[in-house]
Amino acid sequence: MLFLAACSATGGPGEGEGVMVRQITQSAYCGLTGGPGGVAFVRSEAGREALLDVSGQNMATDVVRKVDLAREALVMVTLGQKPTAGYSVGLQSALAQGESLVLDMRVNEPAPDMMVAQVITSPCAVLAVEPRGAGSRFVCRV
Q: Which of 33, 46, 63, 129 makes a 20 to 30 Å CA pair with 112?
C-alpha cells in the first residue's frame, strides 16, 4: 500500500527535481491517537518539543533533536491509531512537482491471517527536509 503526502513549497527545487529528504526515524508508537493519520510540519524548537512531548511515545527522540531547524524542517507522517502491531510507514522517495513536495511513503500492514499483538499502535516516520534556495517555504497537507 502506498500513502502519498504532499507539501507545497515556494523557492524550492524545479519541477521533477529530486529534493533533499531523509528519514531520520520511525516508530510503531508515536503516541498520536485518533484520526486517520496525516502530516505534521515542524520548523521551530517549540513545535519540535510539542511533537516529542506526546504521551505514550516510543521514538528515538535524540536523532530528532539533532536536526538543525535553521537548515532543515521536520515532517512527521503518521498512520493514526491502529488496532494491532504489524503496521509501519517509511519513506520511499521524494519529488518536487510545481510548488509541492510529493513524498512517496511505503505503508506496511499485517496480513489478515497473521498473528499480531492486540495492542494499540500509532506508526509514524519522521523526515528531515532541506529547503532549496533562499526563501524556501513548505506547507504540508494530506
A: 33
Cell of 121: 499502535
Query: What's the pTM?
Result: 0.79
Q: Of 91, 113, 118, which Cα lies nearest the Cα of 102?
A: 91
Confidence at residue 58, expressed as pLDDT on a 0 to 100 scale: 82
Of the candidates 114, 30, 119, the one whose C-alpha atom is nearest the C-alpha of residue 80 is: 30
Domain extents in the chain: 2-109+117-141
Q: What is the pLDDT of residues 106-126, one digit of tens each?
A: 999 999 999 999 998 999 999
pLDDT above 70 for 29: yes
Contact in structure between 79 and 120 (CB atoms under 8 Å): no
Report helix, strand or coil for 63: helix
Query: Cell numbers of 27, please?
Result: 516508530
